[in-house]
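SAMPLE LOG
Freezer: B-3
Tube label: C17
Construct: single chain, 161 aa
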Amino acid sequence: MTRTKEQREQMARAFVCIGALAVTVSVFTPWHAEKMTNICETDAHGAAVPDRHVDGVLRYFERSYYLERAHADNVVIDRCGGKAGCEIPDETFRQFTGATAQAEFCGQRLSKLDVSGTVAFQLTQDGLDRQYQNSRIATRWTGETCLVMGGLLLLWFRRRR
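STRUCTURE (predicted):
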């Protein structure tokens, strides 16, 4: 077997190993969603008690939402720009850019965003649980895809010998 064929088989085995590791981690690791009480203070109803309020105009630039404030520094409220697993997951959120908004923070984390009198985002335990579940599913799906790709590549390389 030539060196390039060996390298191809090693690459396929690496896909299988990475896939197996990802599936194992997603299935057997006892992951738990982050608890609201670990993120910030909560009231008797379990709602976040903010420690900072920021008013401004909602803007979007290079996959980041931020509040533009007159005579003060701008405040970034989300760096993902609508990707899954981020604080503000909805791409249609861009329709609110240019509107006045008020953000509440627990430390550095956005806990509530009110845009033109409408609550556009609120940090809840259900939301944290959903975010955790989505990341676990994504890890498992990625692992299964790597396993299948690696297995098919190994079969294909070995049949071509």
